[in-house]
Amino acid sequence: MLQRLRENKSAQGTLLALPTTLWLFVLLIIPLVLTLVVSFGKRSPDGDVIYTFTLDNYVRLIGYSTDCPNGQAACFDPLYVNILVRSLTLAFNTTVLVIAMAYPLAYFIARAHPKRRNLFLFMVLIPLWTNFVIRVYAWMMLLRKEGAINVVIGWFADLLNLPFTPLEMLYTPGAVLVGMVYEFLPFMILPIYTSLEKIDNSLYEAAADLGANALKTFFRVTLPLSMPGVVAGTILVFIPVMGTFIVSDILGGRQVILVGNLIQRQFLDARDPTFGSAASLILMVMTLIVTYFYTRKFGFGEEIVAA
Amino acid sequence: MNPHRRSPLVLAATVLVYFFLYAPIAILILYSFNASRANVKFEGFIPAFSDRVVMEGSMVQSSPCGPFHWYCDLSRNNDVIEAAGNTLTIAFTATIIATTIGTMAAIAMQRYDFKIKPFSQLSLYIPIVIPEIVMGIGILTLFSQLFGWANTTFGLTGDARLSLGMATVTISHIAFMVPFVTLVVQARLQGFDKSYEEAAMDLGANEWTTFRRVTFPMILPGVLSGALLAFTLSLDDFVITFFTNGPGSTTLPIYVYGLLRRIITPQVNALSTVWILIVFVAVLLLQWLQSREEKPSH
Amino acid sequence: MASEFAVEMRDVVKRFVTPEGNEIAAVDHVTMQIKNGEFFSMLGSSGCGKTTSLRMIAGFEWPSDGEVYIEGKPMGHTPPYQRKVNTVFQSYALFQHMSVYQNIAFGLEMEGAGADEIKKRVGRALEMVQLTGMERRKPRQLSGGQQQRVAVARALVKTPDVLLLDEPLGALDLKLRKEMQLELKALQQQLGITFIYVTHDQEEALTMSDRIAVMSKGRVQQLATPVEIYERPVNKFVADFIGESNFLEGTIKALSAKEASVFIPALNAEVKGMPMSPSLVNGEEVVVSIRPEKLRIVDGPAKGEGLFKARVVNSVYIGSDTHVYLDVHGIRLKVMEQNRISRLDPSSFYVKEQEITIYLMPENTLVLKKE
User: Fold this and answer.
1) Which residue has the higher pLDDT, B3 or C364?
2) What residue in A sits closest to B14 (Cα-Cα)?
3) Does residue B82 sit in the same domain as residue B178?
4) How far is A70 from chain B (nearest CA, A)?
5) Which tens digits make up the pLDDT trace of A47-92?
6) Domain map of chain A by residue range?
7) CA distance A213 to chain B (A)
8) Is B124 on the interface with A (CB under 8 A)?
9) Is residue B273 part of a domain?
10) Cα–Cα distance between A94 and A128 in angstroms, integer?
11) Which of B42, B71, B100 is a domain's end point?
């Protein structure tokens, strides 16, 4: 038995990979299949799942209805579609802002003296490892009417003898955007840094030697070569933003509802897991489609592990 | 051409981004010393050390711990201590299991060819490309269906009833940690020359001794940084825990989240500050391990 | 000893599947017998099957077909740790997390030797490779040459019947290589154990070996002593791979055991030479080979058997020798002449376009099979 196992490399590999594969199968694949099954089901009056096959939940998501207020035969309520669009827009805006902020910093670190690079990276890591919830809380303290930002602006207003009424910043879409940017910024810095750091210095010299100025070198050499990092970072930012519900919950109050909030409420407040499952699958499909087309265009490398 | 030359624009952007990263944390820490219990405005430090806490309205006038009043307060908060205990228990247990099976899987993926390899590889990538909430509600559905079925089928009642708790949180944490452990260890294994193992076998060591005496010590730094990454992921996790925890398995992030929806005292800031300090030490450790590993091997 | 042969490979085949899904034979029906106490080399370029053969002897790979015997015993799927052979790896494979002492002691620990015995034997092994005093160093604190010595000591401390060496000097610079070649050879003679040495460096193989197996495309092309391999190559590959050769293509017109007459169309003449393979037949298309140092430039006109008119294309003076490149009826030939007399007068060297006569001596001219 042992002798046979010793000689059977394929069996050894299977045995080694089995615990992980099984674990992921039970806690990843089966739940996804269950979610799919539940999404075709119906909610029972006491919040349980009745297993049937109906597309009601998906129809409801799209907003198509035959029970209309004005007595029409069919009408369209864009409530949930709006939530999806809002989530996509927010994820897109967050990603763009994060790239704009992360790139210069990553560029700075990559071209810093090698001895100092680790320190600078370390300084990016610290906020990343403070807890996700704590980071949202920090912004709550900053953005409130009596919060630090208003206090600082107030000082300046006093100094210039200008009238100042504190800004209402908390519980606005802007607050959610800032919170998201803050949460995910480090996830963009690290992969971009990794791809920038790999660029051989002689390439810059070659570009200069061939007559490119700093700006041209950046757009023709640096930027294209760092694209794998940007792509990996985008995946690490875009996907979680699409699914996060705490940031909007805390900083957006009831004003900014995203897919994440929708799903969470269906499971915990509204107790309609069937509709929540359908929304969750739509969320997954949307992120997979975006990821697929995005990576197909640019491809992503090992930078994904950098964070 | 000086490779370390930097434009003032890049420098300015860098300073701003670092400011953006650190300003909220600085405010958070500052408020942990706030004399105001309402914690809306910073009303100054708690002025004095005294025998007992003296309050005036919502203002702390003096405390045995002085400015560190909220830290002392925190240390007496049983909910926090329990949540911290839960968080660490879950993180330790999940890290040990995830690191063990993740390392095994990394060796399998890197060294062997087998039938289910493409499937294993795919399942390792799933947690990276789907939003955490999708995974969270999927696992919640699995557990609630499974437990519902088991409880009725076997007529489980009272304490015997299966329900969400420490076990479900730990099991779910392992699921999202394993891929990261595997990816990190796999990356280290890529640079590992097979001839070390052949040399050990050549010198008379069997497969197990070879692994114990040669392979494992040599990939240990990689395994450790995988474990540390997994540990911090577990400490940090909110979403999966949110959907899989039950009574008695509240973790710190869940506890803080609960507070944020109710009244917030500077105690939360004190808790955050302690947390940041602990994480700071952990990251330092990670850096130290990595720098040890990156020393040239030849 | 149980067997006359330390190691024997009988009709061994090793097939691999390439990532593209094609099956290739890295070792293709190899048979060789390695005698006890012999310094045996496998020589060939990368991909010729020499390293795979060595790895099958060590037990890291198992033959797809055929059998490897060590001391007369078939090895089958015996794992490496149950074979009485030890290996010096190309990369040395010194355990980076262990000291020099721990590296050398590792194999003895595996045998279950006592602490005192280990200490004694490690000490002796270190002495043998002149590294006494380095016990506590880590491998990365040693120079390349020192690491190489540790690798040798680590394998030899186990007193194997056979020591396998996989290009052990490949990573060293030329001067150190030459020194280590002599040291390894001396060590082998002193210990009297069998060395099987894999190299792509023909000079190394010729210097050190008792016998050499020249390998190509997974097959043994010739297995013989260094002198035989150089002077009596069995086919064009060996003649080409070992040293330099001039080749002329032709057809056998007359054949006896000692001499063959080959018609060379390019020269429009017959050339006499020694047949190198018993399987040559009359009328066969063959290759005539003659080493540059064995091709003579002679005085006088190109009249008579084996004499041909040639034109100097280029002449390169390299100190000990002069290399003269010739054109003979459109064929390029190279002649190496030793500079036996000190002279400075440029006119005494060959000049471009000079007409000269060359002589192909029958005893220096080898008639080889094409493949």
Assistant:
1) C364
2) A105
3) yes
4) 36
5) 788 888 888 889 888 888 777 777 777 888 888 999 999 999 999 9
6) 1-39, 79-305
7) 11
8) yes
9) no
10) 17
11) B71
The pLDDT tens digits of the residues spanning C26-37 come to 999 999 999 999
Whether the CB-CB separation of C367 and C275 falls below 8 Å is answered with yes
Helices B78-111 and A9-24: crossing angle in degrees, nearest 10, is 150
A24 CB neighbour count, 10 Å cutoff: 26
Q: Could you give the angle at the alpha carbon of C366 between the alpha carbons of C361 and C371, nearest 5°?
A: 155
Contacts of B27 (CB under 8 A, 6+ apart): A138, A141, A142, A148
Contact call for B201 and C79, based on CB within 8 A: yes
Query: In 3D, which of C56, C57, C88 has the Cα closest to residue C70?
Result: C57
B216 has a chain C CB within 8 A of its CB: no
Q: How far apart are the first and last CA of chain A?
A: 43
How many residue contacts between A and C have a Cβ separation below 8 Å? 3
Distances from the Cα of A282 to the Cα of A84, A87, A289, angstroms: 9, 12, 10
> Using the beta-carbon criterion (under 8 Å), do A126 and B109 form an inter-chain contact?
no
- Taking only residues 247 to 266 of chain C, the set having a beta carbon closer than 8 angstroms to any beta carbon of chain B reads none
Chain A partners of C59 at a C-beta cutoff of 8 Å?
none
Say if residue B63 is in the same domain as residue B197: no
| CB nearest to A14's CB, from B9, B114, B276 | B114
Range of the domain at B18: 8-71
Given a contact cutoff of 8 angstroms between Cβ atoms, the answer to whether A273 and A266 are in contact is yes
Would B3 be classed as within a structural domain? no
Residue A123 with chain B: CB contacts under 8 Å:
18, 21
Residue B56 shares a structural domain with residue B98: no
pTM: 0.81
| B209-248 tens-digit pLDDT | 999 999 999 888 889 888 988 988 898 889 999 999 988 8
Please list every residue in chain A whose beta carbon sits closer than 8 Å to the beta carbon of residue B101: 19-20, 23
Q: How many domains are contained in chain B? A: 2
Inter-chain CB proximity B11 and A235 less than 8 Å: no
Of all residues in chain B, what percent carry a pLDDT higher than 70?
95
Residue B108 lies inside a defined structural domain of this protein: yes
* Residue bearing tokens 């909110």: B238
| One domain, residues B34 and B146 | no
State whether CATH 3.40.220.10 applies to domain A79-305.
Answer: no
Q: Is the pLDDT of residue B200 over 90?
A: yes
CB–CB contact B268 A137 (8 Å): yes
Interface test with B, best of A129, A150, A250 (most B CBs within 10 A): A129
ipTM: 0.86
